[in-house]
Automatic annotation (TrEMBL):
The keyword Oxidoreductase applies. It comes from Kineosporia babensis. Keywords: Oxidoreductase. The lineage of its organism: Bacteria, Bacillati, Actinomycetota, Actinomycetes, Kineosporiales. Gene3D superfamilies: NAD(P)-binding Rossmann-like Domain. One of its GO terms (molecular function) is oxidoreductase activity, acting on NAD(P)H, oxygen as acceptor. Belongs to the short-chain dehydrogenases/reductases (SDR) family. Transmembrane segments: none annotated. InterPro entries: NAD(P)-bd_dom_sf, Sc_DH/Rdtase_CS, SDR_fam. This is SDR family oxidoreductase. SUPFAM superfamilies: NAD(P)-binding Rossmann-fold domains.
Length: 239
């Protein structure tokens, strides 16, 4: 059995669906989130392939503690899905210090803290993969969400640096950029955005990356629902 795969933001939405797909593929999974809660069939796992840890990815001490526990428990990782994220839509002038700090703190600093802390475990679990959930907003910034777009563009840049630094070390890097997904994101609930992608579809696409031959680096995946009328080049609806 390969070492486990860490999925951050695994309590609901895309992270939860990704963990479920990976477990269905027979992979051991570690899920991180601040709250391990039960929401409509989601939440704490009874699946023996899945272990939950309570972690705030924006808090360096919390990440350090969790990785120390992981090192003790598993010794190595064969992948990370850098997924934990949040977003609050506001025009640049209306973006408060608090919203800016939270958005960058989770989406970008949280990704940095997670990856940096886990690299020794990934090196022990090689060949390994780091898959990051960016967004179409990283490539096509939308007015009214400067903090979110900046956090995701920064994430894409950081992932490219990681790729170049670890190419020779058998750590493959993938950026996944979905358009709208029907999750709890931004205070919504599944069903609120029925034309968007389902969390299950995105989770399956992410899990499929881990089924590729080790020498295949899937560099970028862009996903959108054909039912959706909101996205780059077709901005007709409010998101
Ligand atoms: N939904 C979309 O339309 C969409 C489109 C493109 C990209 N994305 C990206 O996909 C990723 C997942 O989003 P989603 O749609 O699945 O959202 P979601 O349903 O709101 O889930 C977000 C997950 O992140 C976790 N999380 C948030 N802050 C955290 C923190 N400080 N530390 C640890 N975990 C934290 C949440 O758990 P806790 O609250 O329990 O901590 C939850 O498990 C995000 O990075 C998002 O930017 C989403």
């Amino acid at each position: 059995m390969r070492p486990p795969i860490l999925v951050t933001g695994g309590s609901r939405g895309i992270g939860h669906a990704t963990a479920a797909s990976l477990a269905a593929d027979g992979r051991h999974v570690i899920r991180w989130s601040r709250s391990v809660r039960a929401t409509e069939g989601e939440g704490k796992s009874t699946d023996t392939h899945i272990i939950d840890q309570t972690v705030d990815v924006s808090d360096a001490a919390s990440v350090t503690r969790a990785v120390a526990e992981l090192a003790e428990r598993c010794g190595a990782l064969s992948g990370i899905v850098v997924n934990a994220g949040n977003g609050t839509w506001a025009g640049l002038a209306e973006t408060s210090n608090e919203v800016w700090a939270r958005t960058i703190g989770v989406n970008l600093t949280g990704a940095f803290l997670t990856i940096r802390s886990c690299l020794p475990l990934l090196m022990r679990g090689r060949p390994a993969r780091v898959v990051a959930l960016a967004s179409d907003s990283a490539f096509h910034p939308f007015a009214g969400r400067a903090a979110y777009c900046a956090s995701k563009a920064g994430l894409v840049a950081m992932m490219e640096c990681l790729r170049q630094e670890y190419r020779a070390s058998e750590i493959n890097v993938t950026v996944v950029a979905p358009a709208r997904v029907d999750t709890y994101f931004g205070g919504k609930r599944p069903g609120d955005r029925p034309q968007g992608l389902s969390a299950a579809a995105v989770g399956r696409s992410v899990a499929n990356v881990f089924k590729q031959p080790d020498e295949v680096e899937v560099r970028e995946i862009r996903l959108a629902s054909v039912l959706d009328r909101y996205g780059p080049g077709d901005r007709q609806e409010a998101r």
